[in-house]
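Researcher: Next entry: Class I SAM-dependent methyltransferase (Methylobacillus flagellatus).
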Amino acid sequence: MNISALPVPDADAIKHSAQLIALIRQEVVDAGGWVSFARYMELALYAPGLGYYSAGAQKFGVAGDFVTAPEMTPLFGQTLARQVMAVLTQTGGSILELGAGRGKLAAVMLEELQLANALPERYEILEVSAGLRSVQQQYLQSVLAPALYARVAWLDSLPEAFTGVVLANEVLDAVPVHLVRKEEAGWQELGVALNQEGNLMLASRPLVDAGLVSGIEVLALPEYYQTETSPAARALVASLAQCLQEGVLLFIDYGFPRAEYYHPQRHQGTLMCHYRHYAHQDPLLYPGLQDLTAHVDFSAVAEAGIGNGLHLLGYCTQAQFLINCGITELMSRVPAHDLMRYAPLASAAQKLLSPAEMGELFKVIALGRHVQPLSGFVRGDRSHTL
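Model: Predicted structure:
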């Protein structure tokens, strides 16, 4: 889209972004004039007090930059709770949510599990942003009964050992990615440098770390093909796999299997920026004020889990997973003739399930240890595509 069509930040926001730009500029200088895009993305999203997820601006919902499934409707969390409940029945243990947003999913799931008399001992949240942790604590304390809130605990790092269910909804898409481009002379890596005026710009150099294109270089990609790769996402999955003693890792995000992710026609990659509900492709615009995301290579996720001793339990679309877990039954809690309540519920369900909305683009993948097959993949499993 035309960048000029974006809403203009106010003076305080511009000042905030300028502070982060100064930090990034100094890092570029200290690194000799170039930093990888992954390092830029890490700073833009997570620099303490300045990064998009580390600062206090509203991010979720109508007043923010995007709307996630838990923010859209409680149906999402209620349906997810059914699958989680089945795993906890097998394994015991707790729930660990990564990047819990505002805390909506945690609240809905705790209330749903309480209804079923299936509460875990603890609902743990690993949140790297101090600002978001504060938002979560305030929100959950305001909506949960004291006994439920007492089960919530925040972690500063991954536990050494964990049993239960690890949930990550729209987490992997915000893990920093490297940008690479195939050119006639070989692979180049794109990073951030400074132009003559001292402003941030994208700049390429010959690829130094051949491991970044491992698995990609064998594909028949055209010249000047640009894409992303995320060693950090693979490392996160590997770390989770190593600490999981018994249970399931459940990732929900937008993405593709490798063959589709690196399709020759997807020659500009999947990197996207989100600002005030507008999507565009300029990652250097308003650092600290906009979200930066890339689609997930689910083949890489599966390989990282399997390579660390987990079993692939299933991979399918979000729509298929939610239908398998009984979302339509949950909708029947509200009588269809009660239009004031049922109409908004049906509208939200349509967004979760429709191929034109979130139903097809968003996928669910589960990796586990010492657990039985999951109901969420009983029909429509696409594991063979990975």
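Model: Note for the record: The chain is about 35% helix and 25% strand.
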